[in-house]
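Box 3.1. Reading complex inputs
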Amino acid sequence: MRCPYCHSGDSRVVDSRELSSGESIRRRRECGNCGRRFTTYERVEGVGLIVVKKDGRRQEFDPAKLRQKLRVALTKRPIGEAEIDALLKRVETDLLTLGAAEVPSSAIGEAVLRRLKALDEVAYIRFASVYRQFGDIDDLRREVEGLRPEAVPTVGGSGADGESAPAGTNVERGTDADG
Ligand SMILES: [Zn+2]
């Protein structure tokens, strides 16, 4: 950190203080060359994850945008902002855990669906219908039926910590001819 007065790179921190709930830190520094003091601020950047869209375009992962989509899916559902926050954090963590600097947008969609399924089934279906672009009512029905076998009894509790198994356990069931 260069001194703004003499441009020496030699400075030491004389005081640090957290600002606004730890999101940034203010430091007082003293220049080792001219002895003058100056202030620096340090803050956490975004997670720096790059999303690769279907058409190949790249853009920075934008939690705000994702929150917007979740809000739409959660319209009139009994899910508060805090729970949306928590879900976004989990999705972000899921994505970071992949360990890649770039993730396909499909990975984000799947991560959201996985987390949303545990939170609210109606919102899950809404999100899936947009994200997976259901072509017809059969797509929708298949998705709803997919919820049935391992439907977790969500009794208002927020801590559905049971990771549902990947959907490999689909019950083999031919389309009911209903006759
Ligand atoms: Zn200096």
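In summary: The first strand starts at residue 11 and ends at 19.
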